[in-house]
Amino acid sequence: METSAKLYSLSFSNVKTYLFAFLFVAGNIALPQLCHLVPMGGPTLLPIYFFTLIAAYKFGFRVGLLTALLSPVINHLLFAMPAAAALPVLLIKSGLLAGAAAFAARYTKKISLVALLGVILAYQVIGTVFEWAICGNFFLAVQDFRIGIPGMLIQWFGGYALLKAISKL
């Protein structure tokens, strides 16, 4: 399933870059708060990544990177979630997600379930290797694959649905 769409690559000199990043960071602040109302909602639903995926795929690497870096830091400062010890891994995975999503959008020029699956698997697999190197615990590093499958599915199908809904903007 593919949908043609208007996909952008906004520059840092464009005020829209910061406006969209602000909106997506706000989404990445609100969504985790809702998900944390459910027991194990954060690790299971992986909400901090959702709007980073949308931001980078629709508006390019710069908006995605701003969203990826600011979301975990602001969430930590406001709510102490994620924990400080988890920030490096979250920042790496978020940055990888922004890069993979922007690359896939630029390469395919379409909203595609296959491309989104590739993005999600790429940032998770590469991010898991980094997490394993940082924490030294393989079992902890593969946590997203052990309990985060629902979150990855939400990113895949929910991300596709939202990108499709905003495809003509």
TrEMBL record:
<feature type="transmembrane region" description="Helical">
    <location>
        <begin position="18"/>
        <end position="38"/>
    </location>
</feature>
<keyword id="KW-1133">Transmembrane helix</keyword>
<feature type="transmembrane region" description="Helical">
    <location>
        <begin position="111"/>
        <end position="133"/>
    </location>
</feature>
<protein>
    <recommendedName>
        <fullName>ECF transporter S component</fullName>
    </recommendedName>
</protein>
<keyword id="KW-0472">Membrane</keyword>
<keyword id="KW-0812">Transmembrane</keyword>
<feature type="transmembrane region" description="Helical">
    <location>
        <begin position="145"/>
        <end position="163"/>
    </location>
</feature>
<feature type="transmembrane region" description="Helical">
    <location>
        <begin position="77"/>
        <end position="104"/>
    </location>
</feature>
